[in-house]
Amino acid sequence: MAVNNRDSSTVKAGDGTVTVSGWIQETRNLGGISFVILRDRHGTIQLTLPKKKVDPELFASLTTLSRESVVTVTGEVKESNQTDLGVEIIPSSFTLESEAAVPLPMGVVDKVNVEMDTRLNNRFMDLRKPEVRAVFELKSLMVRLITEAMEDRDFVQVNTPKIGASGAEGGATLFKVDYFGKPAYLAQSPQLYKQILMSSGLDRVFEMAPAFRAENSNTNRHVTEFISFDGEMSWIESMEDVMSMIEDVMDSVITGLKERGAKWLKAMDKDISIPKRPYPRLTYSDCLEMANAGGLSLKDGDDLGIEGEKIVGEVMSQKGYDMYFITEYPEEAKPFYIMEKDGTPYCYSFDLDCKGQEISSGGQREHRYDRLTARMQRFDLDTEDFAFYLDAFRYGMPPHGGWGIGIERLLVKLLDLPNVREAILFPRDPSRLSP
Ligand code: AMO
Question: What is the pTM of this model?
Answer without folding.
Answer: 0.96
